[in-house]
Design goal:
This protein is of the alpha/beta class and 167 residues long. It has a single domain, classed as Rossmann fold. It has a five-stranded parallel beta sheet with strand order 3-2-1-4-5, sandwiched between helices. The longest helix is centred in the middle third of the chain and has 19 residues. It is globular, with a radius of gyration of 16 Å.
Length: 167
């Protein structure tokens, strides 16, 4: 069984993430979405809400496309997470050249830690290349419309979270 791991903070999950998930499903038998606990990033959404959002979006994807998706929170090294879930492939999405430089370093480090785990890069769809969770949060925080970048459920979750923070 080919198992792929697509890691990220997913704070929040965007249509760019959804695009990569749908295409990664064609490459593996099981796709594990690794929701990272990254204390340095200070996420807008707590882990439990990020996991729930990813699970909801993945349920919609599997209903539409089929395939097997598992959502797995993790806080350890990415390569250790890959071992924990039995992944032979790490899936990474690329938006621009700046992403590649960082990812290139990560691949080198991960290969030094475990050369049996391969990294596969998927370019974001041209319509989704500019989408970044950080920018989506900033636009939403400033009252902008993010409906082009996230699903309706995630848009509602963003509005609710930001409204609670203002109160």
């Amino acid at each position: 069984m080919r198992i792929g791991l697509y890691p990220g903070t997913f704070d929040p999950i965007t249509l760019g993430h959804v695009d990569i998930i749908q295409r990664a499903l064609a490459l593996v038998d099981r796709l594990v979405i690794g929701v990272a606990i990254n204390r340095d990033k200070q996420p807008l959404f707590p882990l439990e809400e990020r996991v729930a959002m990813v699970q909801a979006e993945c349920a919609a994807i599997t209903a539409k496309c089929g395939g097997e998706i598992v959502v797995h929170p993790f806080e350890n090294l990415l390569i250790d997470c890959a071992r924990d879930v039995g992944a032979q492939i790490i899936v990474r999405g690329l938006r621009a050249v700046a992403d590649f430089e960082y990812e290139f370093q990560m691949v080198g480090m991960n290969r030094a830690l475990d050369a049996t785990v391969e990294t596969v890069f998927l370019m974001a769809d041209a319509r989704r290349q500019a989408i970044a969770s950080k920018l989506v949060k900033e636009i939403a925080r400033l009252g902008g419309d993010v409906s082009k970048f996230v699903t309706p459920a995630v848009n509602e979750a963003l509005r609710t979270r930001l409204d609670r923070m203002k109160a």
